[in-house]
Amino acid sequence: MSKIANAGALSARQILDAFDVWLSERVAEARAAGMDLAFHDREFDIAPGREPPLVGWSHMLLAPGACPPKGPDWTVYRLQDQGSAANSAGGSLDQDGLRLALEALGYGAYLNPARMG
Length: 117
Known about the structure:
This protein is α+β, with helices and mostly antiparallel strands. The chain has one domain. The chain is built from three helices and three strands; from the N terminus they run H-E-E-E-H-H. Strands 2-1-3 form a three-stranded antiparallel sheet, covered by helices on one side. Strand 1 and strand 2 form a beta hairpin. It is extended, with a radius of gyration of 18 Å. The chain starts with 11 loop residues before the first helix and ends in a 13-residue tail after the last helix. The relative contact order is 0.15.
């Protein structure tokens, strides 16, 4: 079953515009708090006349570098400097490790072998 039920028969433009406003506000909230942002889709809540009239996403603020929430479909925007979190991890990724990581994420077809080493 899809999480998105478009009971209000909204156009794609209306949905994208609502998401643009919602995401911009959440990014501003996370930046002001010095946090990263995690969000995912949920069922649309449509109420004409309410501001905003459409809500279809849930979010949470994360400490910089914190693990993403458990569960499906979370998107994490790392909005804060991850340098201190990455440096404290005590490791680095060499070219082979980077290539393997990108392939595991589905970007293998986009790698240029000449540029990877």
